[in-house]
Amino acid sequence: MPFLLLGFLFGAGFYWLIARNPPAALSPAPTPAAVQARAVTARADLSDFERNNIEVFRAVSPSVVNITTVEHMASLFSRRITEVPRGTGSGFIWDADGHVVTNFHVIQNSDGARVTLADQSSYTAKLVGAFPDRDLAVLQIEAPKDRLPPIIVGASENLVVGQAVYAIGNPFGLDQTLTTGIVSALDREIESVTRRAIRGVIQTDAAINPGNSGGPLLDSAGRLIGVNTAIYSPSGGSAGIGFAIPVDEVNRIVPRLIKDGRVTRPTMGVSAAPPDFNESLGLGKGLAVVGVETGGPADKAGLTPFKRERTGGIVIGDMIIAIGDVEIGNFDDMLDQMERHQPGDKVGVKVRRGDKERTIEVTLGEPE
């Protein structure tokens, strides 16, 4: 009982103490003086660089599109087929007929694609043609021509390291994103989805991220100079090293895709040895011909392949060392030159046999 009385007296005393001296948190706050907004400081005019950034974006962004690939999936409980978004990428309007250029890897392994224009109108796209060796593809949409402003095409042969560039695309699905940078290097080489080398590639430090693929790389005049294609990034995000297919290559391939749906590479009718063949025989630079198709272009022109004797020795044949004025060091070099011609074209092929060189004329054939 004394303990209960002691507890009661202690609690009453504590309550009386709190009532006489309330905590600061329970006390009413003093009324603050009226708070005024800070005065706004006027800014100076935009710099020439800033104004150019704005002008380039305003001029070119209507030509840049967002591409969403889809996969067709059947319902488990009905026969209904639904479209499921699969991935995103970028592209740009090539002409008023609705042709859209993008990377092949953007639409690879998809069942279809939708193209969303800058005004947010969306259209189902059809595949016109693709060239995986150069990671390029052309889609087409049916949209009003006044919504299809073609991008302005520039040139890439006269680019210099250090000049300003702009990239517009849809990184991580964030459409109509502008990034700026410079040409960091030229004549880089990357690998296509078919493991063919893509040469003459532009390197840039403009931020390129997943979703930028297929979008345009622009010069300071807002002209197309490349198609953003790949990044070097251990983390998967921009690390300041992006790559773009040069526009001169794009401008050579896209018209052929629109016309034929594919790039028709003429043939010479030869098969070539791997690089270590040259090294093992000390043949030096060039493409060793180890097979000639009977009746083919090379056969008609008089090319002779390397042959193996019954005794195991090697009979020296022809080595292709140049096509036109372009040196040939490997099979990729030869394919690159074939892509620049059509079946029926006559080309000068420089060959070496032993220590003797000669140039022969070869009429390129149709592919099988």
TrEMBL record:
SUPFAM superfamilies: PDZ domain-like (SSF50156), Trypsin-like serine proteases (SSF50494)
InterPro entries in the record: Chloro_Bact_Ser_Proteases, PDZ, PDZ_sf, Peptidase_S1_PA, Peptidase_S1_PA_chymotrypsin, Peptidase_S1C
UniProt keyword annotation of Hydrolase present: yes
Key words, A-Z: Hydrolase, Protease, Serine protease
Regions annotated as coiled coil: none
Highest taxon in the source lineage: Bacteria
Molecular function as annotated in GO: serine-type endopeptidase activity
PDZ domain residues: 257-328
UniProt cross-references to Pfam families, sorted A to Z: PDZ_2, Trypsin_2
Similarity section: Belongs to the peptidase S1C family.
PANTHER family: PEPTIDASE S12 (PTHR43343), PROTEASE DO-LIKE 8, CHLOROPLASTIC (PTHR43343:SF3)
Protein name listed in UniProt: DegP2 peptidase
Organism: Panacagrimonas perspica
